[in-house]
Structure formats: C-alpha cells, structure tokens
Amino acid sequence: MADGGASELIMLISGLLVAGIVTTLLIASWGGLATTVETAQTQVEANSKTKAALAGDPMQVSWNQTSCNLTLQIQNTGNLELTTDNLGVIVNGTGSTITQTQLLDNSSVWVSGEVAELYVCPTGITMTAGQEIIVTVVVQSEPYQGISGQHSFSEVIRLV
Amino acid sequence: MGGSVSISALIVGTALLGIFALASLSLNNSAITASEVLEENPGEPEMRLINASEANGTIHLNITNSGDEPISFDKTWFSIDGSSPIRASDYHTQTTVLFAGETQHIQLTGTGFTSPTRLFVASMGGQSGVSFS
Question: Are B31 and B57 in a shared domain?
C-alpha cells in the first residue's frame, strides 16, 4: 500500500514536471509568435499610414537633358511624416539619382499635406520634350512605433 | 497513477485553453487594427477645376468638390503651366475648406503669371486640370 502510494506520488510529480515543461515551451512559443504577429501588424499599419502622390502637373514635367534634371513635386498624402533622406525614383525602369530635395513653402518637415520638390537625374537615358514616360516614386516614413512605413506609386508624365 | 495522469492532463489542457484565449485576443486586436486602418484611409478627394481665366495678373478659377469629404485649401496646391506648385491657402484666404458638393470661385493674385495656358490642382491624391479660357 505504502509502495503503491509512493509510486503514485512519483508519477504525480513526474506528470506535473512534464506538464510544466510542456506549458513553458508552449507559452514561450506563443510569445515568439505573438511578437512576430505584432511586428507584422505594426508594419502593415505603418505602411497604410504612409502615402504620397504627385503634386505637380503630370502633363508638364520639366526635363533638361543637358543638366540631367527632371523636376518632380511629391505631396505627403499619408498620416505619417516622410523622410527626405530615403527616397527612390525609377524613370522608365531605370534607377535614378536624386540630386537635391527641398520642401516647398518654407516647410521644415515633410508632414501630411506638404510638398517636396525633387531634382532627379535618370542615369544613362536620353529623353526628349513631349515624350511620355513612367516614373515610380518610393517614399519612406519616419519610424512609427519603431518601424518605418513604405509606399510607392507610379504615374505617367509628359516631359516639356 | 490514474489520478496523477488526470491532474497532468488538466494542467496541459488549461495551458492549451489559455493559449487559445491569447490567440483569440490577438486575432481580435488584429481585426480592430484593420478597421482603424480602414477608417484612417477614407480615400482620395474628388475635385474638378471647372474653368480658369486670367485678367490683369489675377487668376480666376471655379473649383468644385465632387467627393464626399471636405478639402482643405491648406493641403491644396496649384500648378500653373507646369511650374512649382503654390499652396492655395497662401493666395486664397476668404475660405479654408471646400465642402462636399460645393463650388467656389477663387482668385489667385500675385502669382507672377501672365497669359498662362494651363492650371492644375492637386490635393491629397486628388487631381484636376483645365486650360485657361
């Protein structure tokens, strides 16, 4: 009887230990999963708050082949502040260099509604006035809950 | 023996139920976030430049809000003949908002343009353009 009680006690303790280990493992796994989901969720939220659009006339975009200068005006149409340090412009599928960026109307930060003027040099392509091309602009927001949002848009423009 | 297995099963079962509850909470949070995101993105404003003319350096234009959200002139930019955009509220101070369904006559004075040919307006993703008459 006493032996039976002792073995039952051992089995109970063993069972509790195993259950505890399993529970710890499951909770730890869940913690990692929850963190991953939360990060992905914040990224989606940051991306959805990051928006931009062309503010200049797409029918009359200034282009100077000699000085390699395409002038684009981009408005922050999202909710988050955008950064002027991380911008990308693709002209007719060709990567371009942004030679200068300035905010219009004496703005100091690129918050919602403000417009930035970009001077872009598409590398190694020849374009002429009247030509219609596709530009793709990629913008990035300042960190939102530690994560930066991204947004890109493409638009057909006509050069003058 | 049987008692210890039952207790262990009870503990593991409780832990699994707890994890399921946490998963449900997380799913609920995701749904709430998604709905908040949708609410924060009402879509692009819809506007239309009806006509534009220039007289003695002043640009006259009629603009209508054909969408269902008010349009702030502080976030509305005009571009004349492809020039750098100018903020509407810098030149038009009589009103600050173009309400849904409203048409306003706006005068832009001191833009420096004489005999312009085309006017373009952009506001938070909404666009419209018109030739001067």
Answer: no
A 31-90 near B (Cβ less than 8 A): 34, 37-38, 41, 44-45, 48-49, 51, 53-62, 71, 73, 75, 77, 79
Residue B66 in this model has a pLDDT that exceeds 70: yes
CATH number, domain with residue B95: 2.60.40
Could you report the per-residue pLDDT of A85-142, keeping only the tens digit for each? 999 999 999 999 999 999 999 999 999 999 999 999 998 899 999 999 999 999 999 9
User: How far is residue B54's CA from residue B118's CA, in Å, rounded to a whole number?
Assistant: 11
Q: Supply the range of the domain harboring residue B96.
A: 47-131
Out of A11, A26, A117, whose CB is closest to B15? A26
Asked if B37 lies within 8 A of A112 by C-beta distance, the reply is no
ipTM: 0.85
Minimum CA–CA partner of B24 in chain A: A34
Measure the N-to-C terminal CA separation of chain B; round to a whole number of Å: 96
**B92 shares its domain with B127:** yes
Q: B35 and B86: one domain? A: no
Q: For residue B2, is pLDDT > 90? A: no
Q: Please tell me whether residues B34 and B54 are part of one structural domain.
A: no
Instruction: Tell me the sheet residues that pair with B65.
Output: B47
Q: What pLDDT does A83 receive? A: 97
Residue A26 CB contacts under 8 Å (≥ 6 apart), including other chains? B15, B16, B19
Residues 110-139 of A with CB under 8 A from B: 112-113, 115, 117
